[in-house]
Design goal:
Blueprint lengths: L17 E7 L12 E8 L2 E11 L13
Antiparallel strand pairs: 1-2, 2-3
């Protein structure tokens, strides 16, 4: 399995809320390769960000990795 990643480069502060969600692809493409795939999207303080990951299979759990830059 190949991991897909994106970098959001957000300067977070206390009380900020970061989230992620999954949106199933509802297109008519029902080929075996595209069944049960969708998009993982991210939110920051309730706003949906432009960055997303397409073609993600259903049943996987999106995760956030938060790293402090020094």
């Amino acid at each position: 399995m190949q991991w897909k990643t994106i970098s959001l480069n957000i300067n977070m502060k206390e009380q900020d809320i970061v989230g992620c969600g999954y949106e199933r692809d509802e297109t008519n493409d029902t080929t075996f390769e595209n069944m049960d795939k969708g998009k993982v999207y991210f939110t920051y303080n309730g706003r949906r960000l432009n960055e997303s990951l397409d073609g993600i299979e259903a049943g996987l759990w999106p995760a956030l990795h938060i790293q402090q830059k020094v």
